[in-house]
Amino acid sequence: MSGWLAFLLPWEFSPLAVALVVGAAVAFVRGARRAPPGQEVGVARRIGFFAGLALLYFVMQTHYDYLSQHMFYIHRLQHLVLHHAGPFLIALSQPQAVIARGLPQRLHDRVLAPAWRHPLRSGPRRLRASRSRAASNSSCSGWCSSTGRSGCRASTTRASSPR
Predict the structure, then answer these.
(1) 138-148: pLDDT as tens digits
(2) pTM over 0.85
(3) Cα–Cα distance between 57 and 24 in angstroms, integer?
(4) Alpha carbons 11 and 26: distance in angstroms, whole number
(5) Looking at residue 24, what is its pLDDT?
(6) What three-state secondary structure class fits 20?
């Protein structure tokens, strides 16, 4: 085989990685085709998604992975792509709604919809909100007691979080 073509073949074949990349690409294409009028997926979003996906596949499944095992700077570039460049491009393309639209309806109804409504999904938000209210209330009551104000309304009203 040609040098470049042989370089692009998998070094250590991972069926899971290939299945996830192909599955994400197929779901994105199907979702882009099913987009309602006025909500078409733009060219920049498509380029960002597929560039990020291609970068992730390239550094995980080609002979680049072999080189990263033997050259430290190649290894660091691999980590840069895996942790920053690839995910950033994918996130920049905002693929969530497009991929969800491209998934089979049964998968969406049986897996994604129940997971989306699961209580563990909303738990961290409620916990974070209650902690910020508790912190703001305790700081207000501390301020009221340090200034000698009795019956200060700041400790009883709901203060907004600084974020």
Answers:
(1) 555 554 555 55
(2) no
(3) 12
(4) 24
(5) 95
(6) helix
Encoding tokens for residue 76? 């660091």
Q: Is 99 exposed, middle or buried (0-12, 13-18, 19+ CB in 10 A)?
A: buried
Three-state SS for 14?
A: coil
Do the beta carbons of residue 131 and residue 85 sit within 8 Å?
no
Q: Tokens for 57, please give them.
A: 């596949």
| Mean pLDDT calculated for residue range 129-142 | 53
Per-residue buried b or exposed e for 87-98, using 16+ beta carbons within 10 Å of the residue's own CB: eebbeebebeeb
Q: Which amino acid is at 44?
A: A
- Read off the tokens for 15: 């069926």
d(CA 155, CA 152): 6
The DSSP secondary-structure symbol of 34 reads: T
Is the CB of residue 87 less than 8 Å from the CB of residue 55? no
**Interatomic CA distance for residues 163 and 158, integer angstroms:** 15
Which amino acid, 128?
Answer: R
Average pLDDT in the chain? 79
Give the mean model confidence (pLDDT) for residues 71-97. Answer: 93
Q: What's the pLDDT score for residue 143? A: 47
Between 147 and 34, the higher pLDDT residue: 34
